[in-house]
Amino acid sequence: MSENTTGTENLILLLSRHQEALFRYIFSLVPCEADARDILQETSLALFRKLDQYDAARPFLPWAYRFAYLQVQKHREKSARSPLWFSEDVMELLVRERIPIEPQLDERLRLLDGCLAMLSAREKELVTCRYALRQGAEEMMSRFAMSRRTLFRNLEMLRQRLHECVTRRLQSEGLS
Amino acid sequence: MKLESLVHARLDGEITPEQHAELENLLRGDWQARRLYLELADQHARMLQQPEVSTGRLVPSVTSARIGRRWRQGVTLAAAAAAMVALALVLWDEGAGTAEATSSGVAMLSQAYHAEFDKDGLRGGDSLAPGRLHLAKGLAQVEFFSGATVLMEGDAEIQVISAWEARCLRGRVRVHVPPAAKGFLMHAPGMRLEDLGTEFALNVQGGESAVQVVEGEVIAHTEKPPVSLKQGMRLGRTDAPFLAAGELQALMKQQETRRHGAWQDWFKQACRDARLIACYDFSSREDGGWDRRVPNLAQHGAARSDGGAVGARWTQGRWPGKGALEFKRPGDRVRLHLNGTCSALTMACWVKVDSVDKKYNSLLLTDGYDDGEPHWQIHEDGSLMFSIAYRPAAKPGKFNQMYFSRPVFSADSLGRWHHLAVSYDAGSGEVVQYFDGAEAGREVSPLHKPGRPVSFGACEVGNWGLPTVGHEFPIRNLNGAIDEFSIYNAVLSPGEIRSVYEAGRPE
Question: Within 13 A of B191's CA, how many CA atoms are on the CB side?
């Protein structure tokens, strides 16, 4: 019993440390955020059930990814008719190629905060509404007095500029 | 539609089935498209997860309440055990705003031999953030956090891009890539080398690159189709020989032996100093550690002033073959007893601090804290702290003369050997503190009154206090190792401290 408790506590610690990374992994494979949240929760449960199989000497994330991937495939089968899921071969490619570049992806996120801080007040407002307040398209269209097309065009340009800012910083960051 | 626009449309949920098919085809056919997709998807997911970090405009509670609500729905549905997991996720969300210590390093300078960099003060053990590294002279080894190592010989310049990527701008380098770092990319003029494991040498001279694979396989991307280079194969022309592997190790070993020998000669001489009350070199014992005696090597030192190690274990000091004592556990210490009084003091030691994890971390403290007794510690903020007590005749009153240096221990100075020193003049009341031979603090306490003597008596290195029966004692043990400790009954000048430091520098 006490062993079991320690195991649960361990999992909670591991999950809380890696939840964000696990969410990103899942999100890259599914059509929308809601799917990713559901799958993250199911993955947490699956991990809990299979906790006895986890070898603490090995890194947690690769082990957790396997469960997450299974859950993603389950969801995909359930919604096979939706055209917004990637085919299996593309998913496999994304999953396989993600592992070796993960350090670079993490590096990019570290620089992202600095790039976000450089945004203008209006751009920050756009980020806040879209990401923090989770406002829908209609709400944002009326708030910013924009057509749907302009709104998503602006969001695209904003994220594209953030991506370029991060790339530039990666290349030119000086020794400090 | 452009690839980027298709990706953004997918992220916003605005993509049509036709566009999605188009996106999928692009991803299927091109790894660079997949990489861009993963980068943009990750960026989007991060903003969804941590919007308060993104703008700094929102109170974190707004978002955690939102997400918390989502998770609480989950709790009602799931089993009790799962609830614990879900609860942890909620807790995590709320904690997301508290910053963890971060470092921008992607590599470290692991070894340096007679190295001169264009950036001053860079030395072995330093972390490297992405950027250029110019080695003007000597040899240096850079270990990337991915596991790849790059040995370079001055004059050479590399650009550290990430833990997985670097660029050689000029000079001779040798790249070793263990299996864990497979895929490490080295750029050079006119080529990009993808290491599939093991080792290659690269010369870049006058904008021309030449590469030779020493072991394993390298994929060379040039303007022509990529070629696989196997062991012994070479691409490009060069007049200079490629850099050999064992060179740095052999030179480092020689240098260590030389430095250790030079220090031993100096130390023998230094022990004859008439001002020296006590000095300990913590040489490792040959009997496997059973002998706990720590002999006082000062020639004019007081009789019966040998120390005794308690708990602390023998370990390696500044050089292989040089002993040190390691302090780890709350009981670890070296007991000393130094008789007599003096009108000034200087204490100096070589210490490797592994972490500053307590409020006070002991260097040397007298058992009690009576009049004229010094305490020398590292404060939790990383500064050096010297204090001496003189109780006023009329009690109660302030009695603790405290002196703090600027903070000297930080993430970068932990885990390696540093020289610490402090001098106190009972006449002028001036305390000068030193870190690696340079002044780190100088002041006179407002409580100072001239002419009150200093005394040690029973004291200990690396810890504080003998517990008396039935009483608990504060835990102040040092977390680290000490391999030389000297106590003088006079003030050493800044020049003298500097030369003590120079004589004992590990490299």
Answer: 27
The whole-angstrom separation of Cα B442 and Cα B449 is 17
Residues in chain B within 8 Å Cβ distance of A175: 119, 128-129, 131-133, 160
Q: H or E element: which one contains A104? A: helix A88-117
Nearest CA in chain B to A109: B43
ipTM of this model? 0.94
Q: Are residues A123 and A155 in the same domain?
A: yes
Distance between the two ends of chain A, CA-based, in angstroms? 50
Q: Note whether A84 contacts B88, CB cutoff 8 Å.
A: no
Q: How many CB pairs under 8 A join A and B?
A: 195
Please indicate, yes or no, whether residues A77 and A10 belong to a single structural domain of this protein: yes
Predicted TM-score (pTM) of the model is: 0.55
Residue range of the domain that includes A39 = 1-85
pLDDT at residue B204, as a whole number: 92
The secondary structure element, H or E, covering residue A89 is: helix A88-117
Are residues A117 and A80 part of one domain? no
> pLDDT tens digits, residue range B135-170?
998 888 999 988 899 999 888 999 998 888 899 999
State how far the Cα of B3 lies from the Cα of B5, in Å rounded to an integer.
6
Q: How many domains does chain A have?
A: 2
Q: Which residues of A20-31 are buried (b: 16+ CB within 10 A; e: fewer)?
A: bbbbbbbbbbbb
